[in-house]
Design brief:
By secondary structure, the chain is α/β, with parallel strands linked by helices. Helix content is 14%, strand content 29%. It has three helices and 25 strands. The chain starts with a strand and ends with a strand.
Length: 207
């Protein structure tokens, strides 16, 4: 039996579970969340325990997907799971378009309508959300979240755990540092330093 264990029973978890269900890869999808037993179901799927309890029942045949929105927590849990030798799921919605020359890292989620073009590398635990596009030769380091409707042009580098906001655009060749935030609707035409927030069109550092 192919089981998928999902850590985090929130909205992101529901999106991930639906993506997994549509892939027809898993016989069972089971959630774990630290709010258990206050919540024991999310939609059609059961919540069986806290996040830590998953490690007591998981087997080498099962896969785990970490559906935590906070990038640093998501990466920490992925690293913990990997160190225990467990299998990490990578989920791609059937309506997404991904180049066969692209690489999508373990624990990443590519949502409905997303497009990932040729020779783009996406690292561990990334989210390419609904309708987002990543053009050719881009690099997304671990934990990056490209929000719904955001567009990343070719040859863009995005550092780890950065957040690319809803409907934003990044022009070609830009470097976005680690832990940076690009605000919703921003147009990025200059490099963004690490741990910096930029907003507006053209995007400027938020004071």
């Amino acid at each position: 039996m192919n089981r998928l264990f999902v850590l985090g029973a929130g909205g992101h978890g529901k999106v991930a579970a639906e993506c997994a269900a549509l892939s027809n890869t898993y016989d069972k999808i089971i959630f774990f969340d630290d709010r258990w037993p206050k919540i024991d179901r999310i939609g059609e799927w059961p919540v069986l325990g806290t996040c830590d309890s998953i490690y007591k029942i998981v087997t080498p045949q099962d896969q785990i997907f970490v559906a935590i929105g906070n990038a640093k927590i998501r990466i920490s849990l992925l690293e913990k799971t990997t160190k225990q030798g467990l299998s990490i799921a990578t989920l791609v919605h059937p309506s997404a378009v991904t180049s066969p020359r692209s690489k999508i890292g373990s624990g990443s989620l590519v949502c409905a309508g997303a497009i990932i073009c040729t020779d783009t590398r996406i690292d561990t635990g990334c989210i390419v959300n609904t309708g987002a596009t990543i053009d050719h030769d881009c690099t997304l380091e671990k934990g990056v979240h490209v929000c719904p409707g955001a567009h990343v042009a070719g040859n863009v580098y995005i550092g780890s755990c950065s957040w690319i906001g809803l409907g934003s655009c990044i022009v070609q060749g830009i470097i976005v540092g680690a832990n940076a935030t690009v605000g919703a609707g921003a147009t990025v035409i200059r490099n963004v330093p690490s741990s910096c927030t930029v907003v507006g069109t053209p995007a400027k550092k938020l004071n």
